[in-house]
Amino acid sequence: MSADPVTVPSETLVEDVADTTPVEQSASSTPAPEEPASPSHRSQQPLFDTRQLLTFSTLAQTGSFTQTARELHVSQSAVSHAIGDLERKVGCRLFERTSRRVLLTLAGEQLLHHAGKISAEMAVAYESLQSLRNWGQIQLRISAPASICDGLLPQCLHQVRRSYPHARISIGVADRRESLAELGAGRVDVAVCPGSEPDERFDRIPLFNDELVFVMAPSHPWASSPPTDPAVIGAEPLLTYRRQTYTWQLIQNHFTADGIHPTIALDCDSVVTIREMARLGMGVAVLARWAITAEVAAGHLAWAPLGTRPLVRKWAAFSLRTRRLSLAQTLFIEQLRRTALDRLATS
């Protein structure tokens, strides 16, 4: 059953000073009836006015016409008219008035759910336009772990720069959790992370898989005789990734499944530091094979399997599901995949 729109008693309203466009009347004292809009004409009309949606969302939050008017810097009557027009447009009541508050109806709750998505999309559109406010400028904001930043991004971005010489590139060094948080907040465009766990907020684009191995000085006994005994492995000083990272969690789960209780000598974000300390014989590192290719070829490092089973990471590029990737961002992802596969082929 159709219900009347919400109105506010006239004695509680101040004069409506909102900008309105008068409807033109004919010279006759009785206006001519309007012609029904054709389907094609209706399809060209906006379904919702953004100012009405803003008023609706604010009123739903405050539960007060007075507070809504104060927050939006308009009159109470402007708020009342906006809500009334919106209710007439959707054909149902969106609010119920009580003696103390204005409460959402079931239809109002449903519209509020969609209004939040509309506002988020508009914010994304605005941010995208702001990033291009300077003519010819393209933005590429990346978040990735230190190993990717140090080992793969320079060559990858060198190729991207050839196609987009004026692109503005920014790189944040972060682990999976921090990278996805930055992506979810809209502060980066692409997050490069290990892991295949689904997340409904993001699109996941597979990049490559890599194997983690023990890395040591060539003179270390494990270089010629890879260890399999959990007790032997657990007794060796271990140089590894920071223990709050996703990769360390993979390593720890792998060791736990094999009954290995590691002795951590160093946990660090810097692959370069871990690699150098392993070269100097300060312990055995756990790193990706592709990250030590040059050092192994030069005879500075050696590697051995990580126990009796391989440990493989699955890398991917993540992007917001609600935001379409630009051509530059798409090129970056594809170039990163190629760079990584080239490196893996030689490791």
Give a written overview of the molecule.
The protein has 347 residues and is an alpha/beta fold. The protein has two domains: 89 residues, Orthogonal Bundle (Arc Repressor Mutant, subunit A); 196 residues, D-Maltodextrin-Binding Protein, domain 2 (3-Layer(aba) Sandwich), CATH 3.40.190.290. It contains 13 helices and eleven strands. The strands form two sheets. Strands 3, 4, 5, 6, 7, 8, 9, 10 and 11 form a nine-stranded mixed beta sheet that branches. The protein has a two-stranded antiparallel sheet with strand order 1-2. Strand 1 and strand 2 form a beta hairpin. Helix 2 crosses helix 3. The termini are far apart. The N terminus is likely disordered.
CATH architecture of the largest domain: 3-Layer(aba) Sandwich
By CATH, the topology of the largest domain is D-Maltodextrin-Binding Protein, domain 2
What is the N-to-C succession of helices and strands?
HHHHEEHEHHEHEEHEHEHEHEEH
What shape does the CA trace take?
elongated
Helix content: 40-55%
Mean pLDDT: 84
The secondary-structure class comes to: alpha/beta
Largest sheet: 9 strands, mixed
In the predicted model, the low-confidence regions spanning at least 5 consecutive residues are 1-43
Q: How many beta-strand runs?
A: 11
Count up the helices. Answer: 13
Task: Give the helix/strand layout.
Layout: H1 39-44, H2 50-62, H3 65-72, H4 76-90, E1 95-97, E2 102-104, H5 106-131, E3 139-144, H6 146-151, H7 153-163, E4 168-173, H8 176-184, E5 190-194, E6 202-216, H9 230-235, E7 237-241, H10 246-257, E8 263-268, H11 271-279, E9 284-288, H12 293-297, E10 302-304, E11 311-320, H13 327-346
Parallel strand pairs: 3-4, 3-5, 7-8, 7-9
Antiparallel strand pairs: 1-2, 5-11, 6-9, 6-10, 6-11
